[in-house]
Amino acid sequence: MMQKASEFFNNERTIIILLLVASFYIVGSSYADISEPHLWRKADAYSQILGWAGFKDFVPFQNFLGKTAVYDIPVYEYLIAKLSALTFSDLLVTTKYLNLFFFLVVALTGYSISETLRQETGIYYLFLLCTSRFFLHYYAAPIPDDMSLALSMAGLAILLKSRNLKFIVLAGALWLVAALIKSPIPFIFVVFFSTRLLLQHVRGTALSSHAWAAIPISLALVGAIAAERGRMLIMSTNVGGFAQDPSFYFGTLDRRFSLEFWTTMTHRAFSANRALAACVPGLVYLTFRGSFRTVLPFAVAFLSGWLVFAPLYLQSDYYQLPGTILLFIVAAMGAQISAEFLMKKIDAGDTSAWKLLRARNLVLAVLAPLVVIYMPKLGEFHGTSFSKSVTYALRDVDHVMFVDDQYLVTDPAIGAQIATKFTRISTVAFEGNCASLIAANRAILVNGYSACLAKYKSSASTFIEDDGKQFYLRAK
User: Is the pTM of the predicted complex or chain greater than 0.90?
Assistant: First the structure.
């Protein structure tokens, strides 16, 4: 007797999930070093990790330029440093494995959310997530958004499943920590949760029946305010934030009306995973012929991030991680609509639909690893031999003079590539005082070529000239 389509789907689901997770692991393990895009942001997080680990002369809350730079409360960075000490592993290796854990949290909680909102949707969500170069890249990099997103997703999954007070408080606590780490991340989920709750409100029912929702929402707000006050008062930093520089976070109304704003939003949405295009027909059907009230919270939450934090989203694509997750979930619903059509035919005894569904599942299983392995990557999988050689040579050196005219004065990126603090000086200034600067600095890195530095090659214990750079190191 032919089994039900839903039973068939369940039998093959485990295999597909395992292949998808394995696909992520293959690519995640391939990243050896910190790479573009947004190397400066990863460098700031890496410097915090080095500070909490007590590496060289690094101290918490300082970047590679030796200046206080706290863009988030470094819960994530502290955790990596302490786990690395406990496991006696390299800091970046610990980062990868911790990120893999957070990625699995995002995968499993997103699967739970998808299945709660519409059955048989979770597998499509997993396919979109695990074949997204956007998520694979940022979950293979030291960036606190990874942890904040995982905690936010876990909080939402709990709230959609339970009305038990203990679980409500737990979800709120997860949102609080997520907001401490990166407040714009849980903001998206608070908007989604609140919008969905309002749409579910039945006319004639007292709003007080939803009073329990104030607990997680309030705790998320407490986390956001505490993070802001912590940066501004306790750490005495001058990093732009809500209170210190509102335009840095929110931008202007004109920007939101610009064509660039909307085209960038659309391009980024589909570039996160090109397979989203295949979900559009089912999503359109769900919106106009299915349940508009189901789709609306996703649309409001997705747009809220862009419309509230406009300059942040335009400048840094990693801010759209939470909105993209919700986009994947609702797109997965669209994909499920199409599959449901086939399932009904199978249950009615249509053998051709049965074969088509089996072929579709096998294609998913085979396509997932191939897409991940051969997709265009956002970043390089490894650093240059030059940077690795310099990093090793500097293992006992606390400071480097960096001769450069190209990087921004405040750009910490080169520090992440060599895991060492540095002071930047222009080429003209260096060439004008070459002899005295070489005498005063054991380690000098030149972005380009210095004829003067080359003359002192014989006095160096290590001298490297490669990759368009020069490196000079003198013995103690």
Answer: no
